Amino acid sequence: MNSTKTDTLFVSIEDFVPQFYWLSIINILSNLIIPLVGLVDAVLLGHLADIEDLAGVLLATILFEYIYQLFPCLRSATNAMTAQAVGEDDSEAIALTLYRNGIVALSIGVLIVVLQFPLQIVGFALLNPAPGVKDAAIAYFNTRIWGAPAIALNYVLIGWFLGQQKNSTNLFLSCVVNGINILLAYLFIVQLGLESAGAGIAAAISQYLALIIGLIIVLVEIPSKTLSSTISQIWNWAAFKATFTFIGNLLIRYLSFFSTLLIFTNLSSALGVAILIQNGLLLKIIDTSIYIIQGVGYATSSFAGIFKGEGNYQLMKSLIRFSIGTSLLLSSILAFTLVCFPKFIFGLFTNNLEVVNDIQSYVIWLIPILGTLAVSFVLEGYFIGLIEGKLLRNTALIAFGLGFTPMAFVAWYTHSNHILWLSLWLYFVVIIIVLSTQVSKTLKSSLDSNTNSV
C-alpha cells in the first residue's frame, strides 16, 4: 500500500491545512445526515395532537445513547487504529482492524438485543417518566432496539472508512440510508399512525440497509490476496486484548459524558414536564451541534493517528491549532444563530406556544456550552488518535466527579434549571483544563523521540 503512504505524507503546513479542512467539511456533511433523522422524527411527532409522543422519544433517545455508548467507542477506536496502520503503510493491519473490531461489535449488538427487557426496565426506572410519556418511550424502545447489531457494525465500518480518509464513502452511505429513514419515518408516523413506534421501526430498518451497502463496499475495497492472508491472523489474543483495553477506556469516557446527560435529563424531569421538554429540545440542538463539531474532531483524530504511524511529529502543533480554531468558529456560528432566532428554530419542533416561549430563558446557555464543547471534543479527538485511552478515561471521570456532580446536586437542592445548565458547562470546562495540560507533554515527548531517532 505504498500509494497510501505517499498520499498521507505531509511535509509542510501548506500541504496539511487544505486537506485538513477538506476532511473536516466531508465529515461534517456526513455527520449532519445522522441527526437530521432525529430532527425529522421530532418535527413529525411534535405536531401530533398528543405531545407525549415527542417527550417519550426524547426520553428514550437518551436511554439509547446511554446503552449504545460502546458504539461510538468502536468507531473512535477503529478510526485511530486504522489511521495508524495507514501511516505505517500496513495493509494487513488495516484489514485486521476491521475484522477484529467487527467481531467485537457484532457480539455487543447481539448481547443488547438479548438483554433488551432488563435494559428497558432498569433504564426507564432511572429516568422515571410520567405514565403517558413512558408508554410512548417504551413503544419507541421496543422497535428501535432490534437494530442494535447493525448499528454496532455500522459504527465499525464508519471508523474504518474514516481512518483511511474515505469520507466520501461515509457521506454516500449516510445520504442514501438516512434518506430512506426519513421516508420510512413519514410513512410509519404520519401515514400509518404508528407514532413513536413507527419512528423506531424506521430507524432499525435503515441501519440494516446501511450494513448491507457497507459490506458490499468493503468486499470491493479489500483485495482477495489481503483477505486470504489475514484470515488466519484474526484470532490473536494479544491484539484482541489491546483492542478491548482501548475500547474499554473509551467506553468509560463516553459513559461519563452520557451519565452526565442522563442525570441532567432525570433532574429535568423532576422539575416538571415543561422543563423536561424544553431541556430535551435544547439537548437535541446540542446533539445536532455535536455532529457538526465532531467532523473536526474526527479529522483531528485521523491526522493524529496518521502522523503517529508515520512518525511525523512536526505538524502536531499545527493540527491542534487549526482544529481548535475551526471548531470554535463553527460553534460560535451555531450558538449565536440559535440565540438570535429561538422562536423560529424551536417552533419547528412543536407548535406548543408555552414551550417555545419559556425555552428562550435558557437558550443563552448554548453559547458557553457549545464553545467549551468544541474545544473539549477536539482535544479528545487528538488523544484518541494517539490511542491515549487511559488519559481520556481519567479525564472524563474527573470532569464528572469534580465538574458536573457538585453543581448538579446544588441544582437539585435549589430546583434551579439555570444552575443545572451551569453544571453541564462545568463538565466541559474541567475536560479542557485537564487535557490542555497534557498537550504540551505529548508534543515535547514526540519531538524528543523524533530527534533521538534521527
TrEMBL record:
Transmembrane annotation, as ranges: 20-42, 54-71, 103-127, 139-163, 169-189, 201-222, 234-252, 257-277, 289-307, 328-350, 362-384, 396-413, 419-437
CDD domains cross-referenced by the UniProt entry: MATE_DinF_like (cd13136)
Main location: membrane
Top-level taxon of origin: Bacteria
PANTHER family: FMN_FAD EXPORTER YEEO-RELATED, MULTIDRUG RESISTANCE PROTEIN NORM-RELATED
NCBIfam families linked: matE (TIGR00797)
Membrane topology reported for the UniProt record: Multi-pass membrane protein
Family to which this protein belongs: Belongs to the multi antimicrobial extrusion (MATE) (TC 2.A.66.1) family.
InterPro entries with a match to the protein in the record: DinF-like, MATE_fam, MATE_MdtK
Keywords, ordered alphabetically: Membrane, Transmembrane, Transmembrane helix, Transport
Purpose: Multidrug efflux pump.
Subcellular localization, as worded in the UniProt entry: Membrane
Protein name, UniProt field: Probable multidrug resistance protein NorM
